[in-house]
Design brief:
By secondary structure, the chain is of the alpha/beta class. The chain folds into 2 domains: 3-240, 3-Layer(aba) Sandwich (Aspartate Aminotransferase, domain 2), CATH 3.40.640; 243-357, Aspartate Aminotransferase, domain 1, CATH 3.90.1150. It is 35% helix and 16% strand. It is built from 13 helices and 12 strands. Strands 1-7-6-5-4-2-3 form a 7-stranded mixed beta sheet, sandwiched between helices. It has a 5-stranded mixed beta sheet with strand order 8-9-12-11-10, with helices on one face.
Length: 366
């Protein structure tokens, strides 16, 4: 069965009593036991919920995993992952990383719970790998510089040292890459972004194909309770049904926008990996950032990404503000960079909006 068919029918035929097409929302927090020592499989919603279970089974299949845990946010998903490792564990992290992840890793280090080293290249990674590394954490493409990293190469490099590989797969989704198939131990998503895709559901996902890791993740989720609610689980299911058609349209539009941006004066560099619907630009005059953002009429100046509406973000004052200036500037994240999340609008409207904001009145197509 194709991904498109699988997702379109996700949650169907789950209620034989009524024949409901849409997966029911099971709001109950607790469930009756038929008799002493027997369970229906559902006892308490923090542990397991019928609506969330269907979602998690679908997400696991989408990434070719054995276990999936749906959480209340992307950061709660990352926090859940790091609960797998003993206090004092050592991690290697790609330098160009989401600011929220950096903030959390920094807090773990300040509290003496873990230590972190950051790498920018395969050569850096090779030098840093050792037997005391618990895991390597990467994003690909990176956020917001859009650098691609070979998951399979990182996994191959980490394997001799017994280090696991954790991949933030938010930007490309399982439609464009499946980290577990490439040797990663864990794939993590901010489900808030493309997977739900409407800027109306806060959620996270952790997926693994390692049985022991999966069982521990489920135990931790039950113990610590980063649980996705039944209603949000239902919204997530509903949203996944349109993921392929949304993502393909967004990606096609992003390619057109990226190509057009190469011809627009006032831009020094366009950062686009050639796939997905995220791209960044470096403007020639960073002093015009405020003016550019204020001039946009189609793009919305806001944090987040992956929704049907196109958003533009200034990372150094928003998503990555917690990364010290000297660190972020050392790897190319400067005040001149703007990150664009391409939605479902007409490509010409988006290109025209950027042309006008950047001071070039000629609308694309004329």
């Amino acid at each position: 069965m194709s991904i498109e068919t699988f997702l379109a029918q996700l949650g169907n035929r789950q209620d034989p009593t009524t024949g409901a097409i849409s997966m029911p929302i099971h709001m109950s927090t607790t469930y009756e036991h038929p008799e002493l020592g027997r369970s229906t499989g559902f006892d308490y919603t923090r542990t397991k919920n019928p609506t969330r279970s269907v979602l998690e089974e679908g997400l696991a299949k989408l990434e070719n995993g054995t276990h999936a845990v749906a959480t209340s946010s992307g950061m709660s998903a990352i926090q859940l992952i790091f609960g797998l490792y003993p206090t004092g564990s050592h991690f290697l992290v790609i330098r160009d990383v989401y600011g929220g992840s950096f903030r959390y890793f920094n807090a773990l280090e300040e509290n003496g719970q873990a230590t972190f080293d950051y790498f920018e290249s395969y050569e850096d990674l090779e030098e840093l790998l050792s037997d005391d590394v618990a895991a390597v954490f990467i994003e690909t493409p990176t956020n917001p510089l859009m650098k691609e990293i070979s998951i399979s190469k990182v996994a191959e490099m980490a394997k001799p040292f017994g280090a696991q590989v954790i991949v933030d797969n938010t930007f490309l989704t399982p439609l464009r890459q499946k980290p577990l198939d490439e040797g990663a131990t864990i794939s993590v998503h901010s489900g808030t972004k493309y997977l739900t895709g409407h800027n109306d559901v806060l959620s996270g996902v952790v997926i693994t194909n390692d049985k022991a890791v999966g069982e521990k993740l489920c135990w931790l989720a039950n113990t610590t309770g980063p649980t996705l609610s039944p209603f949000d689980s239902w919204l997530f299911l509903r949203s996944l049904k349109t993921l392929p058609i949304r993502f393909e349209r967004q990606e096609a539009t992003a390619k057109k926008v990226a190509a057009a941006l190469e011809t627009i004066p006032g831009i020094d560099e366009v950062l686009y990996p050639g796939k997905g619907a995220m791209l960044s630009i470096k403007v020639s005059d960073e002093n015009r950032i405020k003016e550019i953002l204020k001039s946009l009429k189609v793009f919305t100046y806001a944090e987040s990404l992956g929704g049907v509406e196109s958003l533009i973000t200034h990372p150094v004052t928003q998503t990555h503000a917690d990364i010290p200036v000297e660190i972020r500037e050392s790897y190319g994240l400067t005040n001149s960079l703007l990150r664009l999340s391409i939605g479902l609008e007409d490509p010409d409207d988006l290109i025209g909006d950027l042309r006008r904001a950047l001071g070039n009145e000629q609308v694309s197509g004329q």
